[in-house]
Amino acid sequence: MRFKTIFYIIFTLAILGNLFLFYIVFDKINKLIKKTVFISQEVEKINEIKNKVILIPISEAKEIIKSRKAEKLNISRIITGYTSSVNETDSSPCISADNTNICKVNYNVCASNFVPFNTKLKIEGLGICVVKDRINKKYNDRVDWYFGKDKNKAIRFGKKYLKVEVL
Fold first, then answer.
1. 69 and 46 in a common domain
2. Residue 116: domain span
3. What number is the average pLDDT over the span 139-166?
4. Are 104 and 116 a contacting pair, CB within 8 Å?
């Protein structure tokens, strides 16, 4: 209805010889129509998104996030072994990356880059270790099990693909 009225006004103005005014009014109406079409398209997109969103309580959302993180961290990884020797570490082989003297601890130690220091990892067939050291950056997804000074044991262990659980 409004469009017809506006059109009649424009038509009348054009007849009266005000073509310049006709152009300005017509241009404004054309821009308004384009904006209306654009806005209606955006409203449709928003409504589509609304239909896909599921609202859940924050407590449930936190539980879902925790379980997804656990799924990502509870996977099989390459496990290798290392010892306290200068050719495998640095000039102070007993001092780990977090400054722990790993030669004197009475628990299993491992090195890894994908979890923070002091994280406990349960490795299938080996047991639980505490991350006290880091590995070369090119091995970000691996775990290096510390075999003390027993180089033969580390060599016999070799390289295995085992399930790792973050505790």
1. no
2. 59-166
3. 88
4. no
CA distance 130 to 167: 10
Q: Cα-flanking dihedrals φ and ψ of residue 86, to 5°?
A: -60, -35
Q: How many domains does the chain have?
A: 2
Same domain as 73, residue 143: yes
Would you put residue 125 in left (φ > 0), alpha (ψ -120 to 50) or beta? left
Contact 166, 73 (CB under 8 A): yes
pLDDT tens readout for residues 99-123: 888 888 889 999 998 888 888 899 9
pLDDT, one tens digit per residue, over 18-71 is: 555 556 656 666 666 666 666 667 777 777 766 666 666 666 666 666 666 555
Question: Do 109 and 32 lie in a common domain?
Answer: no
Q: Which two tokens stand for residue 15?
A: 């007849």
Neighbours of 112 (CB within 10 A): 26
Would you state the structure tokens that stand for residue 39, as one six-digit string? 């806005």
Q: Are residues 63 and 129 in the same domain?
A: yes
Angle 73-75-79 from CA coordinates, rounded to 5°: 105
Question: In angstroms, rounded to a whole number, what is the distance separating the alpha carbons of residues 66 and 58?
Answer: 12
